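Q: What structure does this chain adopt?
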Amino acid sequence: MNRRSNSVSILVTAALMLKLIVSASGLNSTDQVLYPDERDDLLQLRDSLSSFFSYPANLYLNWTGSPCSNNQSLWFGITCSKSRVVAIDLSGTQLSGSLPSAALQNVWHLTTLNLSGNAIQGPLPNLKDLIHLRAVSFARNQFSGSIPLEFLALPNLSNLELQDNNLSGSIPPFEQQALRVFNVSHNSLEGRIPNNSVLQGFPTTSFAHNLELCGRPLAKPCSSAPPRSQVPPNGRPPSTSSSSKALRPWIIVLVVIAVVAVVSIGIFGFLYYFKRYTKKPKQSAYDSESVVTKKAKSLESIPEAKENLLMFSNIEKATFDFDDLMRAPAELIGKGELGSTFRVTLQSGLVIVVKRLHNIQGMRKDEFFRQMELLGKLRHENLVEIISFQYSKEEKLVVYEHVSGGSLFQLLHDNRGKARIPLKWAARLNIAKGIARGLTHLHQCLPFHEVPHANLKSSNVLIVHGNDNEDYHPKLGDLGFQPILSSSEIYKLAIGMVPVVSQDKKYALTHKADVFCFGLVLLEVISGRVPGEGEEDLVGWVRSNVSEDGSTEFLDLEIVAEKESHADMMQLIELALDCVEVDPQRRPMMNDVLKRIEEIGALNDGKR
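A:
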């Protein structure tokens, strides 16, 4: 009897364990997976990527069970036909991560693959043996490496979109006659475009913005190889004596040039050393960017470079070259940790801002180009627009649109006295909302950056003045440089104010570092005090005053009299204090910050 009872117990236990295993795999007992290899490849894709979206776009929550039931798709972004997966469309779902090289190789009936508009990194999958594929889009991601040669073996390929990535290497010789859409623009591809009837049939826009790419249909011809040294008709090399005689004048010229160069370098080095080490001490990371107004004849002191400016902007009259920039009158308007900033007036009348970058001498050219091209694509009403950039061994320049209204730092702190016009609460709240919108957009566009802005402070929030004296429109500047700075230089930026709660400093380098900096800006906007100035910590001072019931000590004197808005001020203070939590896990994400700040004063806005 005991043996029989034990046997029954073992069977029941085994059945329960089997049920748990099935549940853990994402299958219900009623599910029937007709093609397990296909499902396994899809799950491998799911597990390689992560998404900021909630259900159903979150693949880990949605891609469970069987992907298809007859012709019905059970998974988000999947299209099925006869229980087979024939299309995957996960475009614009904020996916990040990287793909295995052999991704989806068992999804044999796949005809469409669209992963565009995400933040996926690493090499492209080779898509080997997916002979039914017709449309492939990996556009607007962060894929790197070369275009896989296996793509040449996709016989039915009609659409291939790889634009706006970081792809390098040459373009394979695609010869699929079905190819109707082809785009590899905005990458780092190089070499000659294959001269075949298929690729030559596409417009220049399909290949544009690849700086090292050449040949038709681009207007940039490929440089021919240098001619080989010719052998005299008699087949003998020229005699040593005649050769040395012919070279003697050139040797003399080269020696003279070398001597002049050495002397010039010595003089330049002395002047540079004298200028660099006799200037005043550096400011703290959160000081105003030492707003200087110093007249200069031009930017000609910058060593001449052979590279042309790479243009991004559609700003009216934004057509100029490096020589135009060097000849134009320039005015030094600021010095900061990233470099010196000049206001330049071009001959056309267009006013621009040129930042001469420092502390990135070790940056490789391709890395600098990739980062600048990425920042140059950003477009938002609350972000300062990059017009162009220039790279040489001596100098790295970034050219911005000119924002004429000064900075938030100046708006808050300049001319504190009887003659000052107070900055009212409504204007401060609108500025805070504009900053939140710009920063949220930046985080959405650069989710793969550790810290998308990294230098957010009031002196880097530029102001556009509207028709009304109280109509202020903020634009974020000096953003996105963290990836091209050395680890020792990163902490001289505003994120150097972020508390480090781990021995590993990299623990602080997340999107939440920007959130902390935004919280400091909010506290500055509300209190009128500069973070890092004075003996008392601003965050601690505000917390101690907020804890006292009814205290308005933390409010700037210019807004304390606006009692009808005190409730809104308290909401913004609470949000700011959430943003400056020491533990980054307790700080909100920027999209949540934006939702909360947009709700502040919304009822009052509707009544106006």
